[in-house]
Design goal:
mainly alpha, 83% helix, ADGR_G7, transmembrane, GPCR_2_secretin-like, transmembrane helix, G protein-coupled receptor activity
Length: 77
């Protein structure tokens, strides 16, 4: 499961980088193309954020409760 999460997060980041690099200059003068590139960028950046949240939740769920309690004590809460 963890590898599938990381693969999807990497794909989302890679696609957002490709869109950013390919779509910045050529479509600056065309308003419709610019809006399309912006919408795609927003979508893939949000999906990257959500995959990061899924990864964090996956790590939290798999962590034993004793480790969580020890972490709380170690951080002074």
């Amino acid at each position: 499961m963890a590898s599938k999460i990381l693969i999807n997060m990497c794909i989302s980041l890679a696609v957002s980088n490709v869109i950013f690099l390919a779509g910045m200059q050529p479509y600056a003068s065309e308003i419709t193309a610019c809006k399309t590139v912006a919408a795609l960028l927003h979508f893939f950046i949000l999906t990257s954020l959500m995959w990061t949240a899924v990864e964090a939740l996956h790590i939290f769920v798999r962590m034993p409760s004793s480790t969580i309690k020890s972490s709380i004590v170690a951080w002074g809460k």
